[in-house]
Amino acid sequence: xxxxxxxxxxxxxxxxxxxxxxxxxxxxxxxxxxxxxxxxxxxxxxxxxxxxxxxxxxxxxxxxxxxxxxxxxxxxxxxxxxxxxxxxxxxxxxxxxxxxxxxxxxxxxxxxxxxxxxxxxxxxxxxxxxxxxxxxxxxxxxxxxxxxxxxxxxxxxxxxxxxxxxxxxxxxxxxxxxxxxxxxxxxxxxxxxxxxxxxxxxxxxxxxxxxxxxxxxxxxxxxxxxxxxxxxxxxxxxxxxxxxxxxxxxxxxxxxxxxxxxxxxxxxxxxxxxxxxxxxxxxxxxxxxxxxxxxxxxxxxxxxxxxxxxxxxx
Length: 314
Ligand SMILES: NC(=O)c1ccc[n+]([C@@H]2O[C@H](COP(=O)([O-])OP(=O)(O)OC[C@H]3O[C@@H](n4cnc5c(N)ncnc54)[C@H](OP(=O)(O)O)[C@@H]3O)[C@@H](O)[C@H]2O)c1
Hints:
- The chain is α/β, with parallel strands linked by helices.
- The protein has nine helices and twelve strands.
- The longest helix has 19 residues, at about 90-105.
- The radius of gyration is 21 Å and the shape is elongated.
- The model has no long low-confidence stretch (mean pLDDT about 95).
- The structure holds NADP nicotinamide-adenine-dinucleotide phosphate.
- NADP nicotinamide-adenine-dinucleotide phosphate (NAP) binds near residues 66, 142 and 197.
């Protein structure tokens, strides 16, 4: 009944310590420690080495340590076990903070005031639209998109949402699928992406889509906020759209290649905000507790929660 922690690109020490604390009755180990393949019942992973998990055929569940599962699904050689993602209030609230921060910064012209301060220029805008006059479009109406919409609505933004299948959210216009995309984009001044990376969403944030955003809004042109995955965005299209004025600004937490290469023009573009994929970090305390609870529930006969659908990829 051992638990394997297969983590790359994060320091695994805090994870091992937390998992051992919340599951004191079993072995928690990393792939480098001596172990038998048959003792592993659960695998918790983040960007494991592709192909390295297939041999653990006694696995009962594969847990992603983050909300996204693209890092797992892209490995075609996994043990035949359900894949469980993180749904965690702490992570959700962190994400909403980041989204609200970026939306407010665009709405309240944070860049313009930073530039004016640097130039010691006292220049006031009397033409400040109210939040209710700014249309925010949220792509992805899942756990994260739903919470972001609640908080943006509380600030009185004019919010709409887009998802794969039709969703009802009280007081929020919603659109679904390819058929609803054009109407959704045509009423969007600030586009917020909280989509998962799947075969159908890869590269969706591209020149064609930017060209469909509202150009008649109170902010003088559309803005992009992406915290979903870097694979959703076409970075050369973002840069071209910023340079042509099709986009006014972009706040990006995720990138086609991570870490963002030092020579990427995104680092220095004045209209781009870069954060290092930390809009919503996975907290070892809460997530180890969540996974331990799931393991105990499964072993006492309950069903796992938050199993992803391999067919849709999220
Ligand atoms: N930057 C970070 O630090 C960070 C942290 C956590 C998560 N994330 C990212 O955020 C993503 C979303 O997380 P979540 O928990 O909100 O996921 P979720 O609950 O699974 O929701 C996903 C939403 O995306 C929609 N969707 C999926 N494919 C679509 C498509 N082809 N067209 C239109 N809509 C589509 C779904 O539509 P339906 O409602 O119709 O199913 C659903 O509304 C994760 O997958 C991860 O990539 C990033």
